[in-house]
TrEMBL record:
It comes from the Bacteria. Keywords: Cell membrane, Membrane, Transmembrane, Transmembrane helix. The lineage of its organism: Bacteria, Pseudomonadati, Pseudomonadota, Betaproteobacteria, Burkholderiales. It comes from Castellaniella defragrans (strain DSM 12143 / CCUG 39792 / 65Phen) (Alcaligenes defragrans). CDD domains: TM_PBP1_LivM_like. This is Branched-chain amino acid transport system permease protein LivM. One of its GO terms (molecular function) is branched-chain amino acid transmembrane transporter activity.
Amino acid sequence: MPSLKNLLPAGGSAARRLPAILLTAGVVLLALGPWWADRASLRLLSEFFYMLALAQMWNLLAGYGGLLSIGQQAYVGLGGYVLVLFGLKLGLNPFLTIPLAGLVCGLLAWPIGLLMFRLRGAYFAVGTWVVAEVCRLLLANVSAFGGGSGISVTATLRGMPAAWREALTLWSALALGLGATGLVFLLLRSRHGLALTAVRDSVRAAASLGVSTRRIQWFVHVVCAMGCGMAGALIFITKLRISPDAAFSIDWMVAMIFIVVIGGIGTIEGPLVGTLLYFILREQLSGYGSWYLIIVGLLTVAVMLWSPKGLWGSLHARFGLELFRVRRNLAMDRPRSADN
């Protein structure tokens, strides 16, 4: 009688290594962007990758962790104000404030989590939004940071050549976008990823199997706060000015949800597809004013109705496409012969 031996990530043949080879070549090409792309293209690429980082973090939180937050803009804004404090006020190199913003947001996520994890379901979602609004109101009353009207951070880049600044921005965005994608992939390939998906599917069932549900969700909450904080610091390096309304805007959350829902929630590839579609729609339709928002909203509703798993989920169901193999197959012991 065959016995269950292990749960192993699904393997792949040599042909399946082609996407990894192409991905590596693409990363190298993008990293060389400062030598072949114009300034507008560099800025667009930087924006693409920091939005990808935000989308992957929310996808990890909601799609895999089962924590439906609508307040991740709190950490985007806090990351931006870490740039103001350490970059503008204390004179630290602005690009060094990016990892520092992740650290600060991770530390702040601990006490915030103490409060948020007392809530469940819709109460948790609303609670995260309330936290973001509280952060916005608090920063709007700090005159040293410009108050409600905001403050310019241009001085943090003074003396840095424009070409060097654009290159560092692109490389930082690449590190965030690809790093967030790689982090989710490695996490899901680990035993912690198996526990995380079990918690997402059923907290009670996972707890009955010995999974520390609170610990794994807490870990994901802190990791996502760090990712959003680092992205926030980079965002306002590129924008050169920060204000509470811009830093803690619900628009950051709307973009994350749109990207993940359209691309495919609960998949690593979904945010990649969703981010690409988000930028295509924005570049092609932004000139139509309010019609742009109407079209985006109708597209989101259509995808949720006819393709609940998102565009990548539909492609995977129909063609079996998979760039990041994180599914697990049952590995069974072979039956022993009578001689053994």
